[in-house]
Design a protein that fits this description.
Blueprint (H helix, E strand, L loop, with lengths): L3 H9 L15 H10 L6 H16 L10 E6 L5 H19 L13 E5 L6 H11 L10 H15 L3 E5 L9 H16 L3 E7 L9 H10 E5 L12 H11 L10 H4 L1 H8 L3 H17 L7 H6 L4 H4 L11
Parallel strand pairs: 1-4, 1-5, 2-3, 3-4
Helix pairs in contact: 1-4, 2-12, 3-4, 5-6, 5-7, 9-12, 11-12
Length: 324
Amino acid sequence: MDTWRGFIRFATAPTPTPPDPGGPGRSVEERLAYYSQFVTVRTPAIDSLATSVRRLMLLGRHQRTTARPSLILTGPPATGKTTALLEVGRACHLAHQRQHPALPGSAHPTVPVAYVLVPPGASAKTLTAQFARYLGIPATTRTTQAQLMQAVTHTYNTAGVRLVLIDEIHRLNPRTTTGAEAADLLKDLTEQIGATFVYAGIDVTTTALFTGVRGAQLAARASLIETGSLPARLGARRPFTDLVTDLEAALDLARHRPGTLPRHAPYLHQRTAGRIGSLTRLIREAAQTAILDGTERITKNTLDQVRLDHQAETHHTPRQPHPR
C-alpha cells in the first residue's frame, strides 16, 4: 500500500460486495476470500475525516507562503483509524480520476494521493526514504539527506500530489535526537510540498508529539479528529447496534437468521469494548468458522470460540459452565 502502484491497485480494485439475493450463490473459496476483505461500513470517523479533509484541501488549495493546515486522526487501537485514512485516500484518488482523466499515451500521470508509513525508530533519512519509496525515487547509500529531500519535494510537486496520508505517526519520538530530526523533517515537508497532510496514530495527544516546542508547532497547525469506541447508547440512538446490524446485512451465510447479531449486541459490545476493528474481526472469523464447520450461521457459541486481541479480551470474561 505504501507504494504508488500498490495504492493504485487498492484504490481502483472493486470493493467487496454483499451477496446478491437474486444472484447465483458463491463458492466456499469465494466466500472465504470475501471475509478476508469484507465490506467497509461508513463510520462517524470516516464521515468526519472525509468532510474535514475536503474542507482543508479547498482551504489550502492556493496557499503558497506557509504550510497548509493539516489533520491528526488519533484514538485507541482497533478504532478504525487506518481504515478511515485509506477510505478517504481512495475517495480522493477516484474523484481526481473522474475530474482529470489521464490523456492517452501520457507518460507522466498525476499522483493525487501519497500514503506513507512511519518506520519504527524513524530518523529524518529513513522517513525521507519512505517518501521516496512511494514514488519510486531512486536512492543509494551515497545519496545525502539533502539530495534525497530535494528529490522528494521536487517529484511530489511535479507529480501533483495533493493529499499526503502519514500512518503510524505515534512511532515518532521527538524526545530522541533521531525522532526530533524526523519531526522537523515533517514540518519542512509540509512547507515545501503543496499538499494537505493527514496524520494518523495511536493516542497521539498523550505522546511527546504534542509537547515541547516541536509539539506546539504541530498542534497549532493541525485539527484533531478522535476515534473511539462506539457507545452502546447515545440518547435515543444505539450506534453500536446499528453497526452490528449493518455488518450482519453483509453476511454471506446460507442458514444465518437475520436479527441474531443485533440481539447479541450487548454481548458483542462487552466482548469488543465497542471497538469497530475488534468487532469486524470477530464477525469475520465467526463467519469463516461457520462456513468451514458447515453450520452456515453465527451463533453465540460460534462467537465464543473466536479469540480476539489481548486488549479486547481483557474486557471479556467467558461464561463458566455450571457444575452438574
